[in-house]
Amino acid sequence: MKAVLALIAVVLSLFVLETARQGVSITHFAVGETPATRYARAGADGPSVVVAHGFAGSQQMMQGYALPLAQAGYQVYAFEFLGHGRHKQPMSGDVNALDGTTRLLVAQTSAVIDSIDAGGVPVALLGHSMATDILARVAQERDDIGPLVLVSAFSQVIDANTPPDLLLITGSWEPGLRDFAQEAVQMVDPAATTGETVTAGDLRRRAVIAPFSEHVSVLHSRAGRAEAVAWLDGFYGRQSRPMILPTGTAILGLLIGIVLLFGPIAKRLPQQQIAVSEMDRKHLAVLLLAPMVLTPLIAVPLSPSFLPVLVADYLGLHLLIFGGIQLALLWHWRHPIGPFGWSALALLLLWCALFGFLLDRYAANFLPTPQRIWIMGVLALGAVPYMLADMVLSAQSAFWRRLLVRLAFLISLGIAVALDFEGLFFLIMIAPVLVLFYAVFGTMGRQVARRSGAATSGTALGLVLAWALGVSFPLFVGS
């Protein structure tokens, strides 16, 4: 019955996601080295909208806004910032200086706008998170920019006069950014409230809250996307009512369905003899506390910096030491890792690849550029030992023990950040990726481990973890 419900969820989700694309021509092109995509209905002649993603994002993450705008008749152009998604060139410069990385991203955005034939009509800009600051600066420097829609915005450039036409959309679970959006509107009218459009001469400004949304799900808020379409229509004097589908719910339903469908398939694997030895609480405590404390103390002073991806080299070393300590203790106490099954390995890798393909099509970049392959290989040197130990400790365990096993690693990363906050700050952003990985791939790995052993699932999940981390964070070379 569970498999039937999962299959229904997958089919319905695919129907919603493909319907959102129906009638929209999606054309990939490049502006110099910058990958870009045009979304437009056949024969569309509406105004141009340039769409930009946030830090560690990609073009795919902005489809929630790009597709409804295209359905409304706009010509939408999405692109990837330096070092992000499938862009081959890394970010560079000083990330803390306005004339460093920010200046390079502003110039890149302007180059994309220059490549568009807007027919003399002001170009609309829509961006999320990091991109909101970039777009606000672009609008300040150019005289061919129309309305701005900034999602989860922050920018010191926004003041009482610029940008002159601005909609701010913030998730209800983003309290700090919600306050910023409210303050931006009150710069024009101190008495303004959320959801109220204020005007002063040529100025027009509005702040809205997307209900039940945080920093990522806000990109698929139906209320937020409807506000964006209405705001652009108001500026350009258009009237459009595109069907805004629940794509966020569909993405969630699709991915959950894929995970649930794997269970019945995994049960068809041959059941191998798996020796399970009891582990007392004393041994478990040592297995969790020793690597949690020792790993950052060993890894942080070494501070490797040879990979062209932010904090990836440190993370690989952290994974290697953490997993290595646990595997050494498991070997010392003679806890079995289990048998190895090639067919089970292939099945798990293929199903993870299917998950990744669907994620890449509908939600976020998951396919690496050639420049990232060797980075993934280096990360695998640490990710495989780590996931081997993780699967030995969690595959046959109750939920509370699995939770403790994963929390120990996340806490160890937190200790590393505390020891070198400036150098390892971006590790904080790894935590959501790891939690999603544990929930999705960890669940599928346990189903394989129960039939084929922890060695099989641990090896597969280590390779997938290296892949996921290798494509998630931007390529970066220092100034």
UniProtKB/TrEMBL annotation:
The chain crosses the membrane at residues 243-263, 284-302, 314-333, 340-359, 371-388, 400-418, 424-441, 453-477. Residues 48-161 form the Serine aminopeptidase S33 domain. Gene3D superfamilies: alpha/beta hydrolase. One of its GO terms (molecular function) is aminopeptidase activity. The keyword Chloroplast does not apply. InterPro entries: AB_hydrolase_fold, Hydrolase_4. It holds the Pfam family Hydrolase_4. Keywords: Aminopeptidase, Hydrolase, Membrane, Protease, Transmembrane, Transmembrane helix. This is Serine aminopeptidase, S33. It comes from Yoonia rosea. The lineage of its organism: Bacteria, Pseudomonadati, Pseudomonadota, Alphaproteobacteria, Rhodobacterales.
